[in-house]
Amino acid sequence: MTATKLALKLSDYVITEAGFGADLGAEKFFDIKCRVGELNPSAVVMVVSNRAYKRHGAVNIQKHVETIKEFGMPLIIAINKGEEDPKEDILEIQETCQKLGVDCVVSEIWEKGGAGGKELADKVVKLCKNKARLKFIYDLKDPIEEKIEKIATKVYGADGVDYTEEAKADIESLNSWGLQNLPICVAKTQYSLTDNPKVYGRPKGFRIKVRELKASSGAGFIVAYTGAILTMPGLPKHPAAENMDITEDGKIIGLF
Q1: Hey, what domains does the chain have and what are their CATH numbers?
Q2: β-sheet bridge partners, residue 45
Q3: Reported pTM
Q4: pLDDT digits (tens, 9 = 90+) for 156-186
Q5: Over the range 22-35, which residues count as b (16 or more CB within 10 Å of their CB) and which as e?
Q6: CB proximity list for 183: less than 8 A, separation 6 or greater
């Protein structure tokens, strides 16, 4: 929060990465950070990669677009093009965005550096001129169960929420401690709109299972743990560090 507010004082435009997807990063950014910091974003840049598109398809993009609009935010899609992404694949993503009525730009920052993002930057500046007003998914005075229900149904597209006996007991404790008006931070897999990382696309007819809840009083929110989620950092199976080395003549290799 301090970094964001400092940046806003020093710059005309501030870009911050919200995190994985509209269901996780954006929802937490809007419902927690923006609420606490009294921030009102001007626009959203939704990043779509060819790899993610092949895994989840067009309907997944559509759901994320709907979610961003649920918050009242204007958006543009940045197609994060890699050096080896086939031209026809990028064209397919562009056609999908066109059908959804959402402006998109091919971002080639990975390959070309800043020059590869100039068109995106120009369009984002124009988008920021719109007078957007952020709308929260839930009210802080809503009961804990209702806040989680709204996140699950409006953001994930679930039919509802189920609670383990432990989670029900946790809610009773949180209420007795007077913490019921804190915002909710849902710990959920980033690989799916559900709490099952193997369910791709935009599934229907599913429910979210909350296994336990804990208060992060210092941070100022309640964490609801769903599925088999682990709270360790999301590192890949083979970290980039495994490819890094230094040759005998002092040259660093394997960074990219």
Answers
A1: 2-127 (3.40.50.300), 144-226 (3.10.410.10)
A2: 76
A3: 0.85
A4: 999 999 999 999 999 999 999 999 999 999 9
A5: bbbebbbbbbbbbb
A6: 31, 32, 35, 36, 140, 147, 220, 221, 222
